[in-house]
């Protein structure tokens, strides 16, 4: 056993295999993180809001967890592999080799991974949740970049000398987000993803109905 461990350590510490092993570890990390994030969320949501037998609910939890883990692992693999290939593409027309990361390699690799893993075919609710989560974070980051001083000039794309925009961006964003989702839920509920629609129905619609103290306080119905 010790000899096998020593062999494995020699392999994973060999610089010659570093690029390939980095891809393998990224896939492993994506799978582990996806499972850790999705399993407790799916467990709560399915057992609280889905109907069916225990076995059916457990199957749904496992399915969602497996899909989340697989998709993050797949994206990590495609992204890291794309970054590796792009690094070796010649950027200098007079040079046949290049081992440096280009300024837009991350964007191109993310584009390839996003389309390959999340952009093709019929999208599941798990895929939609992952992409919408990323989109929301990107929008917040872009808003911050708009008022962040540029390194070269010291000025920002949108002048914000008194931090009035920075200080009010989140309150406006939060208020408009809740205003829009409540309006859409009230008048166009079919356009909202089923998990969010079920949660909102549980809180805002079912609270208008009860027929005893039990259904008023202890159980929803």
Keywords:
mainly alpha; about 0% strand; flat; about 220 residues
Task: Label the overall shape.
Answer: flat
The whole-number mean of residue pLDDT values reads 88
Number of helices: 8
Beta-strand percentage range: under 5%
**Quick one: biggest sheet?**
none
* Helical residues, percent: over 70%
- Distance between the ends: 58 Å
- Written as H for each helix and E for each strand, in order along the chain, the element string is HHHHHHHH
Class from secondary-structure proportions: mainly alpha
- DSSP E strands, number: 0
Report low-confidence residues grouped into runs of 5 or more.
none
Q: Report Rg.
A: 24 Å
Description:
- The chain is flat and about 70 Å long.
- Helices cover 71% and strands 0% of the residues.
- The protein has 221 residues and is an all-alpha fold.
- The model has no long low-confidence stretch (mean pLDDT 88).
- The termini are far apart.
- The chain has helices at residues 2-12, 18-49, 54-87, 105-119, 125-147, 164-187, 194-205, 213-218.
- The protein contains eight helices and no strands.
Structure described in brief:
By secondary structure, the protein is mostly helical.
Write the layout of secondary structure elements.
Layout: H1 2-12, H2 18-49, H3 54-87, H4 105-119, H5 125-147, H6 164-187, H7 194-205, H8 213-218
């Amino acid at each position: 056993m010790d000899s096998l461990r020593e062999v494995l350590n020699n392999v994973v510490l060999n610089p010659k295999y570093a690029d390939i092993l980095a891809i393998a570890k990224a896939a492993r990390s994506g799978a582990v993180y996806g499972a850790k994030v999705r399993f407790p969320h799916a467990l709560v949501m399915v057992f609280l809001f889905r109907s069916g037998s225990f076995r059916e609910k457990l199957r749904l939890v496992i399915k969602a967890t497996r899909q989340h883990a697989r998709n993050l692992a797949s994206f990590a693999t495609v992204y890291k592999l794309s970054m590796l290939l792009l690094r070796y593409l010649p950027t200098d027309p007079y040079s046949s080799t290049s081992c440096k990361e280009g300024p837009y390699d991350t964007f191109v690799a993310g584009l390839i991974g996003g389309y390959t893993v999340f952009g093709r075919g019929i999208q599941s609710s798990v895929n939609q949740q992952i992409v919408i989560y990323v989109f929301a974070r990107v929008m917040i980051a872009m808003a911050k970049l708009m008022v962040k001083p540029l390194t070269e000039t010291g000025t920002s794309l949108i002048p914000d000398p008194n931090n009035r925009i920075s200080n009010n961006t989140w309150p406006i964003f939060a208020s408009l987000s809740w205003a829009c989702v409540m309006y859409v839920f009230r008048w166009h509920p079919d356009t909202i993803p089923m998990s969010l629609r079920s949660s909102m129905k549980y809180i805002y619609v079912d609270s208008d109905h009860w027929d005893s103290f039990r259904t008023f306080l202890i159980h929803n119905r």
